Amino acid sequence: FPVFALGLAEDITKKVSPKWRLLGAIVSGILAVAMLNAVLKGIHVPFVDNLFSFKLFAVAFTVFGIAGVSHAFNIIDGFNGLASGTAIMIFAIYSYVSFLLHDYFLLYTSLVLIFATLGFFLWNYPSGSIFLGDSGAYLLGFLIAIEGVLFAVRHPQVSPWFPMLLVVYPVWETLFSAY
Predict the structure, then answer these.
(1) Residue 167, SS3?
(2) DSSP state letter for 1
(3) Which of 24, 73, 93, 100 could crosslink 141 through cysteines, CB 3.0-4.6 Å?
(4) How far apart are alpha carbons 140 and 150 in whole angstroms?
């Protein structure tokens, strides 16, 4: 909720600084990690995985990833349909993998998010009748990130790199914009 609320406040007032929105994404990540017990246990990189034995590092890394993906979707939300189209594709892949894993919670969550985003996408593309805004982009990014963390936590056979590779485009755009 904090990342959505601060994004909405920015959409309405245009006076919420990026620092506050980043703080909102971090608080949302902390709440999600705490409520869902969704903390990454490693990333399958030798020596780095040893750091995940420290609970504080694991939580900080997970929260950083969630906040980063939330902001990455805000960065790509500029062209009509880019953020929502990317989100639909990612949720579709999540749906397929969760179907294969018989994880019906993640399957139904992904399907609901596909159709909710598709409704927006069809209304928006190509004319740009409405926009995601900061609230919508942050929310989509947050949901994609937390669902990716849940895949890695709930299914040890799923590599933590799976969700990272799905969000590589928005993350790359964020890194490139920062550069």
Answers:
(1) coil
(2) -
(3) 73
(4) 15
Please count the other Cβ atoms lying within 10 Å of the Cβ belonging to residue 172: 13
Spatial distance between the Cα atoms of 109 and 129, rounded to a whole number of angstroms: 26
Question: pLDDT of 142-170, one tens digit each?
Answer: 999 999 999 999 999 999 999 999 999 99
Distances (CA, A) of 6 to 24, 96, 138, 143, 178: 7, 32, 9, 16, 21
CA 55 to chain centre: 22
pLDDT tens, position by position, 34-76: 999 999 999 999 999 999 999 999 999 999 999 999 999 998 8
Between CA 13 and CA 1 the distance in angstroms is 18
Give how far the C-alpha of residue 126 lies from the chain's centroid of Cα atoms, to the nearest Å. Answer: 24
Helix (H/G/I), strand (E/B), else coil: 39: coil
DSSP 91-134: HHHHHHHHHHTT-HHHHHHHHHHHHHHHHHHHHHTTT--S--HH
Find the distance separating the first CA and the last CA of the chain, reported in whole Å. 30
Q: Which two tokens stand for residue 161?
A: 């790199």
CA gap 71, 179 in Å, rounded: 15
CA distances from 48 to 15, 74, 101, 147, 165 (A): 39, 29, 27, 23, 18
